[in-house]
Records
---
Amino acid sequence: MNLSIVVIVKNEEEMIENCLRSCAFADEILVIDNASTDKTAEIARKNGARVIKFESDDFSKTRNRGMEEAK
């Protein structure tokens, strides 16, 4: 069995690296980037996460997108 972790973010460049380090045990880390204007996506990619750009005001839609993308 594989474990995927989905992290929903927006402008979290100061915290994303520590967050992803704490998820390192997972088989897959997905970052759903909800229209960040900072370096969140770049930092996430450098830390091994797969970044999906998805803009929505609806948390449920954003969460569901992450679940759809998870392997």
Note: The chain has three helices and three strands.
---
Amino acid sequence: SMVVNKDQILSTYYLSEDCGVLETYDHFFETSEPGSTTVYINPKGDQAYYSRSSGFDQFKLYTQSKLLNTWSDERALFTTDDGSDNNYPFVLGDGVTLYFASKGNGSIGGYDLFITRYNTNTNTYLAPEQMGMPFNSPANDYLMVIDEAKGVGWFVSDRNQPEGKVCIYLFIPD
């Protein structure tokens, strides 16, 4: 694990080409809109997953498809709006498994890591499951990434860290 400034998370670790790309929201959308969010773009470069503010300091997860050279067709990932603050999406290479952070859905404190899978029969995501300890804590735990090509995973947490610092925990997925 390593401790870095919170604004340096994405410049600290690089994904394999086969895993897609992580960018900051403001860079991807070329905006100065405030907010600490990330955008995950799949390896083909034709699907983006991100969160954006839904007001009142809450974020909601969305996806867009790339048609020719234009991003369009924005859709919310979850059709119900339960008031959860969902952020930091990452999709495994299977295109079905989604990791994200949420302050709702039964979080034990701050952001917690959740996993869900896309149901191709209903075109919806299954009910999210909290990942539990050691991935989650009463602090903010977010940005779960599995780099299948390198055989490692990492997630970010501000547990036991001074203001503005986070710890990136590296692990070997089981």
Note: The mean pLDDT is 90.
